[in-house]
Amino acid sequence: MPTLHLMVGLPGSGKTTYTREHAKEWNALVLTPDVWHTALFGDDFSGADSSGEHDARHSRIEELMWKTAGDLLAMGVNVALDFGFWAKSERQGLRRWAESLGAGCRVHYMNVPLEEILARLERRNRENDGDVFQVSPEDIQKWAAFFEPPDADELSWR
């Protein structure tokens, strides 16, 4: 049975690094919207004037990735989605979606203290390799308030 791997955590928590390290072990195709977005449009997140355009572009990329992931899971291919998945309701919906395609679902939670995330982002922003967005400490602190960590039940999904 194919598996949908969901990478859960805030920006800077290590989702992309973890996914890259484990993709071969999982025999999974990795879909990372930020990598596609920066390849197509550059870092259009940092400019306040372009945030609406950034969000629209990002939504279109994610829609394409959902379709691709669904097609792959239906063909029996494992998929790792490196999106963040901050809301429990979103993760529950994805689990049901994967099951409807005959796939399992596994949550990988990057449980990293906010102080460590802020330090990583400062380093990442300084050493940007071109496939990530510049994220400010203010944005992370705002987003952390919306993040819903997975519970034990979610972490036991297979």
TrEMBL record:
Species whose genome carries this gene: Candidatus Merdivicinus excrementipullorum
Keywords: ATP-binding, Nucleotide-binding
Record lineage: Bacteria, Bacillati, Bacillota, Clostridia, Eubacteriales
Listed GO MF terms: ATP binding
Keyword Cytoplasm: no
Magnesium found in the keyword field: no
Alphabetical list of Pfam families matching this protein: AAA_33 (PF13671)
InterPro entries for the chain: P-loop_ATP/GTP-bd_All4644_prd, P-loop_NTPase
Protein name: ATP-binding protein
